[in-house]
Every structure is written in C-alpha cells, then in structure tokens.
C-alpha cells in the first residue's frame, strides 16, 4: 500500500532512473536497505525477504499460490513496483519454461550484507575515533537543524525575519527550483513553492535534496554517489560523531551544502568530524514512522514550526490551530479564512472561497487534505483510533474540499498511452483487466474499446505473453 | 471503475501499516540442543535468528524486537537486557566491542546482536549442573508470561505516546482499543517436548494472548507439544514443525517474517491436525479422554481416589461409567509407571465409515 | 388483578446507608483520577443526589408517606448521606504547587483498587446457567443515565454477554424482558453469544413501556431453569430500573419456590433501593446481602453488571449435586486433500471436523455428544479458560521505600522504577499522613506513602513489578511472571505446585450463613 504520503518525490524520481544507475546504487548496502525500507509497499517487503535467501528462482505460479486470492491487486502492485525499481527480475514469458521471479544480483548481495554485516563497503558511516567535541548534545543538534530549516521555509514564504536568511547558495537553489521567483524588490512564492510548504518536513527535505541533485549534475558531480550519500545519512545515529576523512571527494564537497540545509553539523573546533541532525537521520523513515518517533522529532520541530499535530477541524468546517508560529499561520492562511488570533491559537473556517483561492494558486485539494491530516491534533487521531482506525479528518470536510476543487477543475491531464484498435473484444477485456490490476489504468471506454494508461512497460510484457500463448 | 471518476470517498488515511513488535521466545533447553547438534548447532541457529531479527527491523523504521530465553527452570530476558546485568559493562562498551563501531554494519543491528550474544553467554555461564540434570523441559510458561507482560507495557506506552496522554483510558484493561496500536506478535522457537507440567500457566498465557489479539507463532525444531499447538491455534498464529532444521532461515524469512498486515494477503501455513488433548491434574499425563469434575472442571485421567476431587475436595458421584473399574487404589508411584503407555490409545481406531 | 407494589426506601435512612455511602466515596475518587477537573466533580456529585431523589415513582411514595422528609432531618443533625467525601479535600499539592504527583498517585491507587479482590480460593460453580432479566418498562425511558437507561442497559447487556461467555465458556445464558406487566422471552437458554447479542440489538429499535412484573419474569426464569442439570448453578440477574412491580399474585410465594429450586437472584437497580428486591436477593442467596446493588452512574453500573460474570461462590455442598463426567478431547482435522465424508451429527458432507477420541466418529462442531458412542466431546481449551478461577493469583503487596533498593526495574517488562534518590524524606512523609488523618484509616495512609516507590512485590517469588504488570498479571494473564520464570528453588517439588509456584490444594470453604 503506497499511501499518498510515502509516495514521495524521491520515489517518482528514482523510478525514472535507468537500470544501470540502480545497479550502481545497489552496490552500497545502506542504499539497498534504505530503498527496501522506504520505497516498497508492505507486501513487496514480504516478497523480497522471502526471496532473499532462496537459492533458486521462485516460480511465479508458486508466488501466486502464496498470495490470497483477494489480495491479487496488492500482489500486482508489489511486483510492478519491485520491477520498476529493478529489485526483482521476472523472466520473460515463454512456452518452454515457466515464469520465475528472482532478486537482481546487486540488490541481493547488498541487502544480505546489510542484514548480516561484513564486507568492506563502509556504507554505514565511519564513526570518528577522535574525542567527541564537548557540548554537542541532542538538544543542540535539534535546535541547530530546526533553525537552519526554518530559515529556509521563512525565506520561501517571504516572512523572512532578518538574520535568519539562508545562504546565497540555498537562495539560488530555491530560485532555480522555481520555488520562489525574484521580483524587483523581494522574492515571491510560486505555485510550486506553495505545494512545497504544504508537505511534511521529511518530504520538504527530499524535495530540496533532489533539486540540489539536479543542480549538482550540471556541475558534473556523480549523482549515484550523491544519492548513496543521502541514504547513508539516513542510516546514521543521531548524536554520534562521524569521520569526514573516509568520505569520497564528491561527498566531502557535498557536506558544505548539507550544513546550509541543517542536515549535518560540523563543529568549528574539530574539522574532520560531522554530526548528522535529525533531519538527516530520519531521511529514510517513512511517514507513519515519523509520527511514532515522537520523542525527539517533535521536540526538534514542534516548538516553532509545529510538526506535532495542532490542527482541529470540525464537521462544520471550523478550524482551530494551536500555534503561534507565523510560518504555520501563513501556511494555514493559504486555504483557510482565518478569523481570530489568540496568543496560542488561531481559528478560522475552511470555506468555498478560501479553497478556490488556494486551488487557483496551484494548491491541490489532496495537498490540503494531506497537510491537515499530517498536522491533525492528537485528539483527532485518538477519536479516529477509538472508532477503529477510520479517517482522521471528518469525511464530510474531506469530501467537500475535494468537491470544491473538482467544481473548478473539470479537466485533469495525465501523460500516458492510449490503447485502441484491438484485435478482439476478448483481448481488450484481458488487457483492460490487467491494466486495472496493476494500477496504471486512467480511463477506459467500453463502447469504443479504448483505454488509457499511465505506464506501459508491464502491459507490453503482458501483451507479449498473451501473444505467446 | 470507481477509481477513475474521482468522486470516490477519499479517506485521509496517512498511517499505512504501523510498526510492529516481535517478541522471540527462544527455547535454550540444553538437552534438546545437544540432540539437535548434528543437524543444527545452536550457534548456527542463533546466527539465522539474528538475520531474521535484522530483517524484521529492516522492514519498518519503528519496528521493535525483544528476545526471551526459555531455559531449564528459568526464563530470562536476552534483549533488552535487564539493567542489573547491564550496569557492569556500560562504560567500557564502546571500547570492548569493536563490532559496534564497524562501518560495515547498520548500527541498530550491531547493538542488538552484541547485547543478545552477551546475555546468551551469561545465561550459559550461570547454568549449573543440577539445573540441567533435574529437568528435560524448559520454562516456556514463564517466558511467554514475560513476553506478554512486555508487549502489554510497550503497547500501553505506545498508545500513551501516540494519543493524548491526558486520559487514563489506555490502561491495559480495555484491550479492545488496540486495533490501531502497535502490532505485536510472539514467535516461539521451541525444541523441547512435553510441557504437561506447565499446562495451566501455558493455557493462561494463551488466553491472555487471545484477549490481546497477539498471535503466537510456533516454530518447532524438535519434539512435539500439544499445548503450543493449541496456543497457536487459539491465537491464530502459525504452527510449523520443521522436517529439516537446516533450512531454518528460509522458513523464518518466508513464513514468520510477514507481520499481521501482510498475513492478511498471504496464505499462511496451516496445521493439518490440531491436537486438543489436555493434561490431567493428577499425573500430568496428556489424555484424550478424561474425567472432569463438574464443580471446578479439573481433569483426571482416572477417577480420583475415594471419588474426591483433588482440586476442590468435592465429593463426586461417579456416573455410570461401568466400564471403568479402575478405582482400586494402588500405590501412586507404581501406577504411573504401569499406566505409562496406555494413556494415548492408538490414533488409528475403528475406520470411519465413508473413508 | 394486579396490584402495584411500591415499597421505596430512600437511601441513607437505615442500614443500607453504610454500603451506599461507601460506594459513593470510592467513586468520588474515581473522578479525580479520570480528570482533575473540579467543576465536573462537583456537578456529578450533586447530580448523583439529584437524579436519585426524582424517580418516576415519587408521587406514589409520597402518598404512602414511607419516605423520610429531606428537610426535617437536615435541621437536626447531619444525616448519613450528607457526609460526603469531597475528593478535592484529599488532593495534596506537590512541592511545585501542582497536583500532578497527587493525581498520578490516585491513578495508581485506583488501578490497584480494581485489582485488590479476594483471592481466597472458594468453591465456585463454573458450569453456570444464568437468566438475564432486563427491565423494558416505562422506567427505562429516564435519561438520568446517559444516553438513556434503556440504551445504556442494552449496551451493557451486550457487553455482559460477551464477557460472560469469555469467563464461563461452557455455561448457558438466557434473556428475558419485562414490559407491559408481562415477561417476554428475548432469547432462549443457549451457549451461543452471537444469538443473544443479535436479539439484544433488535431490541434497540423499541422503547421501554408499561409496568414491569418481577413475579412474571421470575416465574418464567424458574421454568427456563427447570431443566438445568444439578451440577451447574442456577442464577438470575435482574437489571431493574423501576421502583415498582406489577404482579398477578404474591411475590413471596415465588421467592419461596425460587429457594426450593436453588435459584439465586442478584439485582442491579438503576434508581433506588427497593425493599422487595433486597428481600428477594437476601433470601435466595442464603442471607447474603451482597447481591443487590444500585448503580450510581454509568461506570458503576457497568462495573456492577460485569461483576456478575465471575462465577459465584458455591454456598453449600448440598446445593449442587457434583459428579464426575467423562469427556473426550478430540483433535481437529482439516482433511485437506482427503475425500469428503459425512459428519455423524448432521449427516452433512465436509472435509474437516473433530474425530471422537473413543470411536473416531466425525462431528462438525464442539461441544457435542458423540452420536455413536455417547461420549461428551469438548474442546479442552474451553475448559482451560476457567482454570484461572481455580488457582487465582495472589494479590501483590506494595513495596515500601525501605525495601525498594533491591530492584531498579520491573522484573517482567524491564521498565525502570523511580530511583532511590527520589524517596521522600521523613518530614514530607509526616506531612502527608497528618493531612490525611481524618477518616482515612491507617492502611490507607500507608498505601499512599508506599505507593511512591511504584514497586509491587509478589510475596512468593519476591520480585518487584510495576503497576501495569500488576494489573496485567491479575486481570489478563493470571500468571505471576516471577514465579513462572524461575523454578530453580522448586526443583524437587512436584504435583500441582508446579503449576502455579504457590498453588495450594484448594480448600472447600463454605460460606457462613
């Protein structure tokens, strides 16, 4: 189940990479582990683990038998994600041999190494053997990471308090990524910037890192090394010092930028060690985990920007937000009609007009909903838990917000492939069913025997297998 | 084609499958492991289990693990280690265990491995001669009780943390609300046989697990125990008896790694026959036909002496089970030996009509 | 001919006052634990009194003049029910001026209180036959219990059914309703909880109406219990909202016949004490007065009803005929891959089933009697579910600071205890006790002082546990983690002791009177 939140920008980005890049990426056990943990649907993880120590390829028919008949959709989704990420290979259908599933060699070797330890890849970070510089406690790192990151956010939302300006490099990056546009006097937020703000912190970090990755490519840096460094950061332990000496040259040059983002901290006294902050160590945690790593993460970010839930929304569209952060209030004001402000909270209403306004400036209803539910007050979460884990937000509100958006947007563009002119109705039906099962189907017309899909590779294979029969 | 038209009921479900807690109960019965040595030495089994633990932790960031040893006469926490044992080497930890600073190993994995092996070594070192010689089973009931108490506590803490702490409603008493809480399960890696002496406590833990909706998975490497079978059946866990223990890791990874969410979409191995026999209170025999006191439901393999229930001391009227004249009281000890082989009538009885 | 019986005794005038008052004080503390909101406390406390004095039968009772005038008594001296334990009086501010520590202490105390029950092993009837009588009369429309008495009762009854079968898996239950002056059968005596729950759910659409008739309902339950075998208990639980009963004859005759039929009645009232109910319970329970209670609020109501799920103590040996039953514990087979065969009980084709342990006939569900050889077949797990009643776990004791130094963390869940350094100094201890002297007896003040160490010890294995594990061990697992985990001391012991570590052969304790 790839929920809306875990389906990150990074994920989309990775899928587009060519197979050769994946092979290089998977050479690092830490990368293999991070991708396994972060990018895979739940069932896919079970598949991978089952295949990991299997000495011969697994028959596809056996796999089908292992999965319950009502979970066919999840199975197809899992397999399609796995093959898109080049984690498994499924042998091409042929008449002589049955189809088999196996892990790609690079991934298998690396994940095994990650689980058992050993090898000499040093991909989990080399702890610095030098004496730890004093005064670098968890609180300090959290505070450091928070101020750095908030500086960037404030800059984006143009509430820039003097003094907390991000460095020029970051400003350039934001501009290059079209998150802000430089006006005559000040910078102005763009549509992409709005959506950026509405994401949870972890997603924001990834967005920025990927922007930077593009940027770095232009400078001629090897993006595989950069990516593996991101994944390595995610496997480090908070509050420990790591050695800079053993890093690769590319990675060393990256550190400077990461310091700007607030992902790592280099103590001024000891130049050859660095400390990852919580922003870095949670890079590869997924959304639900972020909520449960409450102890530190919230203390890191809640004081100012409020990652901890603080929004209560009622069925009558009234919204109460327990926050005094100008940043959060500015974000809320994007899609809410705020009415009153108290010392520690603001109240307002989600109205048709306010949602219109947000939609017209490029924010989607999904983003609003995701924002509301990720920042939902613990009381809302508890209420949903008491009802046996239903939706966090009142369904009426959620539906209405979507409807308000749909009122305006009668049309939605999707890039993809149109299938038509089938040989027979039977073929059409089979392909349609398959496309629906693997979750790529966007539109279909039964009368005209046409359908439209977003991704085509697997469908091709399937067509071949149909033809082969 | 509901998905396509955009009016489907959107649910703000951000959670996804939550983290899970795995408690492994490792049977360290020295007798059984000695017998098992030629096929699967303990060291190798531990290595396999460690990989399995790492695989579990790798599956989700917030996944947790705990390990209890069910030793002869004792049940001991292996991971997390009790503080008392920990305090000794806490300062010299980083120095003395170079493996912890190994850049080739994910640090959380290294921490667990190190602590588990240390406690296991300690456990073996503190086992005395009489401990081993006086029993041939292990303290499974205690280990399960510890595991359940731990899960209960972690769950309470988890709910407190994830919901508002203001209300006292998350006491362990109301267990109905933990649907969305931490998914917990217990895996018992068992090598010992007969547990009849612990019948009642084991059944108590079984029902406790059932109430808390914690599946108890059983992986049997050797021996056979009726009660663990019942435990896994009652709690909807997986029961597996390995025919070739060498393949332990593959079994672990394939059958026992999927958590409760994945299991809903996978076909779990099932037990062909579930043995529902009980242990009698008088001689600790496993029986399939027994005499039950109508007052307290105690089970006896033969009508007790003088027809007085040993548990509740009620005088019982014997029904007209004329076929059972076995009330003649013989010396208790001898009787046990004499009847030793008779307690389980051969499973192949009269053929069923229709076979 | 029906005559209205309305013998109402306002609470607090006679001997019942003590019990009522006691319950009251304890529930007040509950509120503090729930949330430390003083406003709500006050409200609920007064609310309790308010609703109780305005029952639907008020006019009738005034006419009789049985009721004591509130005004008169107030003037003379403080009546029993006016001595209220104000929960805010016992709250002690901590050093930092907050009441957090006190509230925490109270929460812990409350968790414990729920646990501290009698663990003397009494002979209890485990094969039970119980009739649940629910008042469906006009009195149930009242809204003094939220949302209404009617809905709350149905809800509680549903929970009761579930819990009852959880606790007494081989027992039987039937449900009868009282409305329109007659008794109506809601569900027949059976051992299937889902059926009962379905019937109860169906009642949810209706409303309470007409008069209740105790006598009719009791007569009907007497008939229903007539065939209950002698080795089981025969019980009736009445949830009674009204303060009157509209009976066709003399209820005392019915009570007499209930006694001869060995049926015992317990009642949970929703409004006020009713004399005939008290009499009914007392007489059918051999003089034991503890089977009639009046609910103070929703929580208390639920607690009272749930208390009945514990098997009752057997009163005398003669009361139930005990016998030794031969039973078989068949194994279940799934029969995957085998041919289908007919089951012996319904002649239906099926693959899996249970094979009789004596003759190998196949039956499809348990419990059942083997159709071929007549052996009673039962799932041993059904029997085992009730064993924790036989060997109840002893209550654990609080550990005073003086003995707390031996442990740093809970034995079973490894949660750390507060360190010794946080032990209170002597002076603060004194301050606490002096403030509480009032009505608090010695034991209570000791409790509070000792509670601070947050350690609870099993007296057998002397291990220390935290409060969560204490609650868990006594309510859910029924095992002592300490005793179960280390039997090195008992290496030579055999027999029942091994089961429980401290299990003793349960003595047959007869109830007095």
From TrEMBL, chain A:
Q: Which UniProt keywords apply?
A: DNA damage, DNA repair, Nucleus, Transcription, Transcription regulation
Q: What Gene Ontology cellular-component terms does the record carry?
A: nucleotide-excision repair factor 3 complex; transcription factor TFIIH core complex; transcription factor TFIIH holo complex
GO MF entry, a single one: double-stranded DNA binding
State what this protein does: Component of the general transcription and DNA repair factor IIH (TFIIH) core complex which is involved in general and transcription-coupled nucleotide excision repair (NER) of damaged DNA. Component of the general transcription and DNA repair factor IIH (TFIIH) core complex, which is involved in general and transcription-coupled nucleotide excision repair (NER) of damaged DNA and, when complexed to TFIIK, in RNA transcription by RNA polymerase II. In NER, TFIIH acts by opening DNA around the lesion to allow the excision of the damaged oligonucleotide and its replacement by a new DNA fragment. In transcription, TFIIH has an essential role in transcription initiation.
One of the GO BP terms on file: nucleotide-excision repair
- Official protein name in the record: RNA polymerase II transcription factor B subunit 2
The entry assigns this protein to a family as follows:
Belongs to the TFB2 family.
TrEMBL record, chain B:
Keyword Repeat in record: no
Which intervals carry biased composition (Basic residues)? 329-338
Please give the Pfam families that the UniProt record associates with this protein: Tfb4
Domain of life, per UniProt, equals Eukaryota
What the entry lists under Gene3D superfamilies is as follows: von Willebrand factor, type A domain (3.40.50.410)
Subcellular location(s) of the protein: Nucleus
One GO biological process term is: regulation of DNA-templated transcription
What segment(s) does the record annotate as region Disordered?
A: 328-355
Question: Which GO molecular function entries does the Swiss-Prot or TrEMBL record give?
Answer: zinc ion binding
Q: What is its main location?
A: nucleus
A single Gene Ontology CC annotation of this entry is: transcription factor TFIIH core complex
Q: Provide this UniProt record's keywords sorted from A to Z.
A: DNA damage, DNA repair, Metal-binding, Nucleus, Transcription, Transcription regulation, Zinc, Zinc-finger
What does the UniProt record say this protein does? Component of the general transcription and DNA repair factor IIH (TFIIH) core complex, which is involved in general and transcription-coupled nucleotide excision repair (NER) of damaged DNA and, when complexed to TFIIK, in RNA transcription by RNA polymerase II. In NER, TFIIH acts by opening DNA around the lesion to allow the excision of the damaged oligonucleotide and its replacement by a new DNA fragment. In transcription, TFIIH has an essential role in transcription initiation.
Record text on subunit structure and interactions: Component of the 7-subunit TFIIH core complex composed of XPB/SSL2, XPD/RAD3, SSL1, TFB1, TFB2, TFB4 and TFB5, which is active in NER. The core complex associates with the 3-subunit CTD-kinase module TFIIK composed of CCL1, KIN28 and TFB3 to form the 10-subunit holoenzyme (holo-TFIIH) active in transcription.
Q: Which family does it belong to?
A: Belongs to the TFB4 family.
Protein name, per record: General transcription and DNA repair factor IIH subunit TFB4
From TrEMBL, chain C:
- Please name the Pfam families in this protein's record: C1_4 (PF07975), Ssl1 (PF04056)
- Record GO biological process: nucleotide-excision repair; regulation of transcription by RNA polymerase II; transcription initiation at RNA polymerase II promoter
Per UniProt, the keywords (alphabetical) are: DNA damage, DNA repair, Metal-binding, Nucleus, Transcription, Transcription regulation, Zinc, Zinc-finger
Give residue spans, biased composition: Polar residues: 42-54, 422-431
- Highest taxon above the source species: Eukaryota
The biased composition feature labelled Basic and acidic residues covers: 433-445
Q: Which residues form the VWFA domain?
A: 129-309
InterPro entries assigned: C1-like_sf, Ssl1-like, TFIIH_C1-like_dom, TFIIH_SSL1/p44, VWF_A, vWFA_dom_sf, Znf_C2H2_type, Znf_RING/FYVE/PHD
Which GO molecular function, any one, fits this protein according to its record? zinc ion binding
Span of the signal peptide: none
A GO CC term attached to the entry: transcription factor TFIIH core complex
Q: Where is the composition biased (Acidic residues)?
A: 27-38
Subcellular location per UniProt equals: Nucleus
Residue ranges of the region described as Disordered: 18-79, 420-446
UniProt zinc finger (C4-type) residues: 356-373
What this protein is reported to do is described as:
Component of the general transcription and DNA repair factor IIH (TFIIH) core complex, which is involved in general and transcription-coupled nucleotide excision repair (NER) of damaged DNA and, when complexed to TFIIK, in RNA transcription by RNA polymerase II.
Please state which protein family the record places this protein in: Belongs to the GTF2H2 family.
Provide the protein name: General transcription and DNA repair factor IIH
Q: Which species is listed as the source?
A: Glarea lozoyensis (strain ATCC 20868 / MF5171)
Recall the taxonomic lineage recorded for the source organism: Eukaryota, Fungi, Dikarya, Ascomycota, Pezizomycotina
């Amino acid at each position: 189940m790839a929920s809306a939140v875990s389906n990150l920008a990074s994920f989309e980005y990775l899928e587009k990479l060519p197979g050769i890049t994946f092979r290089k990426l998977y050479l690092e056990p830490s990368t293999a582990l991070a991708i396994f943990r972060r990018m895979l649907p739940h069932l896919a993880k079970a598949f991978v683990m089952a295949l990991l120590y299997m000495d011969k390829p697994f028959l596809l028919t056996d796999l089908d038998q292992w999965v319950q008949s009502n979970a066919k959709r999840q199975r197809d989704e899992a397999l399609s994600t796995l093959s898109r990420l080049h984690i498994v290979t499924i042998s091409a259908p042929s008449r002589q041999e049955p189809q088999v599933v196996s892990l790609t060699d690079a991934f298998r070797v690396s994940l095994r190494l990650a689980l058992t330890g050993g090898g000499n890849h040093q991909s989990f970070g080399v702890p610095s053997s030098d004496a730890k510089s004093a005064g670098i406690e968890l609180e300090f790192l959290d505070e450091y990471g928070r101020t750095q990151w908030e500086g960037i956010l404030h800059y984006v939302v143009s509430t820039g308090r003097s003094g907390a300006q991000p460095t020029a490099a970051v400003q350039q990056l934001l501009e290059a990524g079209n998150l802000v546009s430089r006006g005559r006097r000040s910078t102005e937020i763009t549509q992409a910037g709005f959506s950026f703000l509405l994401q949870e912190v972890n997603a924001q970090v990834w967005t920025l890192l990927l922007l930077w990755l593009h940027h770095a490519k232009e400078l001629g840096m090897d993006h595989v090394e950069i990516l593996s460094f991101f994944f390595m950061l995610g496997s480090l332990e908070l509050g420990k010092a790591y050695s800079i000496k053993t890093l690769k040259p590319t990675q060393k040059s990256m550190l400077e930028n990461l310091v700007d983002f607030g992902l790592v901290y280099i103590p001024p006294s000891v130049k050859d060690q660095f400390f990852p902050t919580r922003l870095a160590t949670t890079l590869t945690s997924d959304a639900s985990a972020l909520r449960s790593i409450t102890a530190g993460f919230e203390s890191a970010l809640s004081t100012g920007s409020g990652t901890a839930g603080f929004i209560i929304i009622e069925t009558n569209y009234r919204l109460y937000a327990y926050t005094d952060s100008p940043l959060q209030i500015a974000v809320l004001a994007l899609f809410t009609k705020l009415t009153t402000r108290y010392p520690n909270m603001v109240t307002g209403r989600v109205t048709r007009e306010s949602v219109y306004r947000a939609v017209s400036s490029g924010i989607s209803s999904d983003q609003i909903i995701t924002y509301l539910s990720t920042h939902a007050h613990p009381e809302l979460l508890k209420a949903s838990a008491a009802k046996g884990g239903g939706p966090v937000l009142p369904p009426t509100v959620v539906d209405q917000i979507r409807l308000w958006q749909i009122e305006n947007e009668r049309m939605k563009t999707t890039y993809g492939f149109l299938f038509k002119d089938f040989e027979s109705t039977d073929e059409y039906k089979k392909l349609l069913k398959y496309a629906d099962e693997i979750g790529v189907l966007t539109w279909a017309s039964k009368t005209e025997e046409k359908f439209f899909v977003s991704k085509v590779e697997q469908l091709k294979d399937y067509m071949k297998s149909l033809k082969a029969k | 084609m509901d998905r396509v038209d955009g009016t489907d009921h959107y649910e703000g479900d951000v959670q996804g499958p939550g983290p899970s807690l795995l408690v492994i109960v490792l049977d360290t019965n020295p007798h059984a492991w000695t017998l098992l040595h030629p096929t699967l030495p303990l060291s190798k089994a531990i290595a396999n289990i460690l990989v399995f633990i790492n695989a579990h932790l790798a599956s989700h960031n917030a996944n947790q693990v705990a390990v209890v040893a069910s030793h002869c006469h004792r049940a001991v926490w292996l991971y997390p280690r009790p503080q008392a044992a920990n305090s000794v080497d806490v300062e010299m930890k980083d120095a003395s265990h170079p493996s912890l600073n190994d850049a080739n190993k994910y640090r959380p994995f290294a921490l667990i491995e190190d602590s588990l092996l240390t406690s296991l070594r300690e456990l073996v070192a503190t086992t005395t001669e009489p401990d081993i010689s006086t029993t041939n089973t292990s303290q499974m009931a205690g280990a399960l009780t510890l595991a359940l108490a731990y899960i209960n506590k972690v769950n309470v803490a988890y709910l407190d943390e994830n919901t508002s702490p203001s209300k006292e409603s998350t006491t362990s008493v109301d267990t109905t609300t933990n649907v969305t809480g931490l998914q917990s399960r217990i895996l018992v890696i068992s090598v010992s046989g007969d547990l009849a002496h612990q019948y009642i406590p084991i059944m108590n833990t079984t029902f406790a697990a059932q109430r808390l909706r914690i599946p108890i998975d059983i992986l049997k490497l050797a021996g056979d125990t009726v009660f663990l079978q019942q435990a896994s059946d009652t709690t909807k866990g997986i029961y597996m008896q390995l025919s070739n223990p060498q393949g332990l890791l593959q079994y672990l990874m394939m059958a026992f790694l999927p958590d409760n969410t994945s299991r809903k979409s996978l076909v779990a191995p099932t037990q062909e026959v579930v043995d529902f026999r009980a242990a009698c209170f008088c001689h600790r025999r496993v029986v399939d036909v027994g005499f039950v006191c109508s007052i307290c439901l105690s089970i006896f393999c033969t009508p007790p002496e003088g027809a007085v229930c040993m548990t509740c001391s009620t005088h019982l009227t014997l029904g007209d089970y004329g076929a059972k004249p076995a009330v003649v009281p013989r010396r208790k000890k001898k009787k046990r030996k004499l009847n030793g082989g008779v307690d389980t009538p051969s499973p192949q009885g009269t053929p069923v009509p229709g076979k | 001919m029906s005559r209205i019986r309305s013998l109402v005794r306002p609470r607090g005038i006679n001997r019942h006052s003590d019990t009522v008052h006691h319950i009251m004080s304890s529930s007040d503390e509950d509120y503090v634990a729930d949330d430390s909101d003083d406003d709500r406390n006050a409200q609920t406390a007064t609310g309790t009194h308010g609703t109780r004095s305005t029952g639907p039968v008020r006019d009738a009772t005034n006419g009789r003049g049985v009721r004591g005038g509130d005004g008169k008594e107030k003037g003379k001296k403080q009546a029993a029910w006016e001595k209220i334990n104000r929960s805010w009086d016992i709250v002690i501010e901590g050093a930092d001026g907050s009441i957090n520590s006190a509230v925490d202490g109270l929460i812990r105390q409350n968790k414990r209180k729920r646990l501290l029950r009698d663990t003397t092993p009494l002979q209890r009837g485990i094969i039970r036959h119980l009739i649940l009588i629910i008042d469906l009369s006009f009195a149930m429309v009242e809204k003094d219990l939220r949302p209404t008495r009617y809905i709350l009762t149905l809800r509680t009854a549903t929970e009761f059914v579930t819990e009852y079968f959880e606790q007494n898996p081989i027992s039987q239950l039937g449900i009868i309703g009282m409305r329109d002056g007659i008794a109506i059968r809601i569900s027949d005596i059976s051992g299937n909880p889902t059926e009962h729950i379905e019937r109860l759910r169906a009642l949810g659409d209706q409303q309470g109406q007409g008069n209740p008739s105790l006598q009719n309902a009791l007569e009907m339950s007497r008939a229903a219990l007539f065939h209950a075998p002698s080795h089981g208990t025969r019980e009736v639980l009445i949830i009674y909202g009204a303060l009157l009963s509209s009976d066709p004859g003399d209820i005392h005759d019915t009570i007499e016949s209930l006694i001869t039929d060995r049926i015992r009645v317990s009642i949970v009232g929703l409004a006020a004490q009713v004399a005939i109910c008290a009499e009914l319970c007392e007489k059918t329970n051999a003089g034991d007065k503890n089977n009639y209670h009046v609910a103070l609020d929703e929580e208390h109501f639920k607690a009272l009803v749930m208390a009945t799920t514990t098997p009752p103590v057997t009163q005398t040996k003669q009361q139930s005929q005990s016998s030794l039953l031969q039973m078989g514990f068949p194994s279940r087979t799934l029969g995957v891959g085998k041919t289908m065969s007919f089951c012996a009980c319904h002649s239906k084709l099926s693959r899996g089933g249970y094979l009789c342990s004596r003759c190998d006939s196949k039956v499809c569900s348990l419990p059942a009697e083997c159709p071929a050889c007549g052996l009673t077949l039962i799932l041993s797990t059904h029997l085992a579910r009730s064993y924790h009643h036989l060997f109840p776990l002893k209550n654990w004791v609080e550990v005073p600071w003086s003995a707390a130094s031996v442990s740093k963390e809970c034995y079973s869940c490894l949660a750390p205890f507060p360190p010794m350094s946080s032990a209170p100094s002597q002076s603060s201890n004194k301050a606490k006790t002096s403030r509480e002297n009032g009505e608090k007896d010695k034991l209570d003040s000791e409790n509070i002082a000792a509670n601070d160490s947050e350690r609870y010890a099993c007296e057998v294995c002397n291990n220390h546990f935290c409060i969560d594990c204490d609650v868990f061990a006594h309510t859910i697992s029924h095992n002592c983690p300490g005793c179960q985990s280390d039997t090195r001391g008992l290496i030579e012991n055999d027999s029942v002791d091994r089961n429980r570590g401290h299990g003793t052969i349960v003595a047959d304790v007869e109830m007095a009177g």
